[in-house]
Amino acid sequence: MLSTSLDENIRQLEDTFHDCGDLVKRKIPIGQHKDIWIYVAYIDMLINRETLESHVLNPLMVFVWETPPKPEDLQTDLLHTLTDCGFTTADVRESGDPAQLYNAILSGDTVFFVDGAASAIIISTRGWPSRGVSATDTEVTVQGAKDAFTESLRMNTMLIRRRIKDTKLKVKQLRIGSRTQTDVALMYLEDVVRPAVLEETLRRVKSIDIDGILDSGYIAQMIAENKISPFPQAQITERPDKASAAVLEGRIVITADNSPFVVIVPATLNTFMQAAEDYYQGWQIMSFIRLMRYAAGILSACLPGLYIAIAVYHPSMIPALLIYKMAGARQSVPFPTTLEILIMDLAFELLREAGLRLPGPLSGAIGIVGGLIVGQAAVEAGLVSPIAVIIVALTGICGFAIPHFSLVSGLRLSKYFILICSAVLGLLGFWASVLLVLSHLVSLRSFGFPYLFPMTAGEVNHYSDWKDTLFRAPLSAMKKRPIFANPAEDVRMHEAKKG
Amino acid sequence: MFSLNQKISVRQLQVLSILHVFGAGIIMLPRQAAAYGGQDAWIIVLLAACAALIFTYLMATVGRKFPADSFVSMTARLLSAPVGKCLAVLLALKLILSCGLALRLFSDILRQTMMRNTPCFVVCAAMGAVGAYTAAKGYETRARMAQILFPLILLPVLIVFCLAAFEADFSNLKPVFSTPPRDMFMGVFRSSAAFNGLELILLIHPYARRPDGVRKGLMQAMIFSGVLMALITGITIARLGAIDVTRQLWPVLEMMGLIDLPGSFIDRQDALVMSFWILSTFAVVNCELFFSALLFKDTVGKGKHAYYIIACLAAILVISFLPLSAERVNQIQTWLYSTLDVGFMAVLPILLLAAAKIRKIGGA
Fold it and tell me: Closest chain A residue to B13 measured between Cα atoms?
């Protein structure tokens, strides 16, 4: 607890913040006779100077001096007098706990220690330089909102609040990370979320014991049920419209300070195949695109393995004309088919990684280098056959067609597993590995929900979730919320009254 | 929220049963039925399905009386603990033998059609390992897997047989009802072996979310399987002729090889269809592995299910590695059916129902 001695409190604070050059502190005399001492402390650039100077220091140093409180108030309850009439800002609170005060300073608040008081005043002055709301980089759509989340937690909660103007939208705030003390907020619709899911999410988030949370990705990994699985069990997005849609479905959005991505739980494979734009355009074209995405997902994991199994073990399945062409193209290739595909695929992965890390204008150059020069040169040099380039390119394109990169990562790893099994055992190996991946997927759960819902266990919700799976039904037909919602609030569209 | 108690819905149970019955029986069934009934084979299959329906009814009625009891505890309550444990071990051994033989047969078919140079033990070990992995994940996982595999297995087969029906000569099915009653009876008896695995109905009630709906659900599943198998048998005979069907070891596969898929990119669709047999054999292997391990675990009363699965898998692989010809495997399977399968599917349920009646135990 704090001492009533201001000097003792200053000594304690300076010991704690020893060698912290960014801490700004000043002992200030206030009052008509300048005989009342206060001590102000904050971290430079973590605060909004305008708020501090206009709404805190100015009233304290000028206004109080000009119209002083009653002397008896100053003597009996200086702290409350200052809290009540010393500042022209609303977000003011008191605390006598040094840990809480120091946390407040580190979070961008300004703390005032007052002589003779065993408590200090915390004034919310948070405001640091940050980029404003900008357009989304990773989830681009043709139609729909362009804004993306930012690194500021409050900005992110605002972006969702702006879309859902409902008092039932709750923002439960926590701090995680023993050293980073990162602010984390859980956003949900109180009546639509399933209480058991909310309770479980809170339990898992609170049980995270780590020194620092530097991105929401930490949370997504640490609250996953199966930590060995390469498949994501929580959805990550930078689109506020997608996060808001998830909240309306009864899911929970977790946003962390300093991260422009939010985590959405629960998540199933189907939710990773959905893009925000799916609901902004007609159901016919979007159903077609949804179907294409599923096909792309399967191909991105299976195509190289299937090609190897058929080309190496069962060429008799391929029509004669095609097999002659393939054999002709492979005539000068010195590597076995498996190695040829592996080399091309790894080269593709390297080019993709290089393209991601390079600055924007240069990443285009990598695409040209990869696509034109490496691919064409490798074929012309006889190192790989054109069909291998086609297979690898098609696999890569299929991966890009899936809206969530975290699912693509899982599929990419599965691809290598299927490829190796197919190379060893042909079609038997292909099917065996596909079955193993499928077994793994069906055994996965996200907050109790089967990962492959509604393809499995769809009957639990009377197959209603099928309306937004392989195909997207017309919006007017999707009257019920998905399985994630509280059954008591599962209707989102009431029948129009007739007459 | 979803339960974590390994309970499954009646729909999932139906899918599991159809896949198991279909995967276990269809490859051999037309030949077996045609051997006794010639062009009447499809009638034999329909009658065998009726017999399977009666077995299903009997076993599901027993299970309905003891919905929360495992096989071991149910038989212990009705026939004493030692008898219950002996029956459980016998059933587990039967499942292991049956699974080993099915795996052996599968590896033979696979090597004949797709992988001539791959040793038998590699095929068996690969399929066994995949089946064991899924079995170890639990009953709910198996049920969900079956829901995924159901369309993958049945749709291509249905498409192929529909196409086959267009080119079939249905005069090959004439004259109908020309088989003598004795042959018809023997044919029905032998063909109902295709429905082996039905005895597992005695074990599934504790896993059902709504045990009272199991009997009706399973009866529907058996009707579906029976009609489908009769159709496939009828089309196979119409396409190949009864004599040819009896001469072929695997007439269904033979017929698939003859079909021209319109606009098909693939030259040999029998290899493609075999891919789907891999899936259905997987359904059989993981089912029999799961239940044999469960029976041993319930009998011993301790230990993890996964450890028993590993032990059962080892035994199954040893059986599947035995140098047995397809004919010999067929003979052993017929013997298994005539003795243990009939015992578990028909005799035991009647005994259990009688014991329940006499001792006045069990629900309505």
Answer: A457
pLDDT over 60 (residue A200):
yes
In a domain, B361, yes or no: no
Q: Which residue of B has its CA nearest to A197?
A: B1
Q: Which residue of B has its CA nearest to A443?
A: B141
Nearest alpha-carbon partner for B154 in B251, B43, B273, B53 = B273
Nearest to B133 by CA among A389, A173, A433: A433
Q: Are residues A289 and A254 in the same domain?
A: no
A446 shares a domain with A368: yes
Which of A313, A442, A449 lies at the smallest CB-CB distance from B141? A442
Same domain, A262 and A285: no
Residue B4 located in a structural domain:
no
A259 vs A98: CA distance, rounded Å: 28
Kindly report the nearest CA distance between residue B264 and chain A, in angstroms. Answer: 9
What sign does the CA torsion over B327, B332, B335, B340 have?
A: negative
| Contact at CB, A438 and B145, closer than 8 angstroms | yes
Q: Are residues A34 and A163 in the same domain?
A: no
Task: Tokens 């929360």: give the residue.
Answer: B68
| B110, B144, B268: residue with CB nearest A428 | B110
Query: Rounded to whole angstroms, how far apart are CA atoms B88 and B94?
Result: 10
Residue A84 lies in a domain: yes
Is residue A274 a contact partner of residue A294, using CB atoms and an 8 Å limit? no
Give tens-digit pLDDT for B249-305.
778 777 777 777 666 666 666 666 677 778 878 888 999 999 999 999 999 988 899
Q: What number is the ipTM of this complex?
A: 0.89
Q: Kindly state whether residues A14 and A111 are assigned to the same domain.
A: yes
Domain enclosing residue A353, as ranges:
281-450
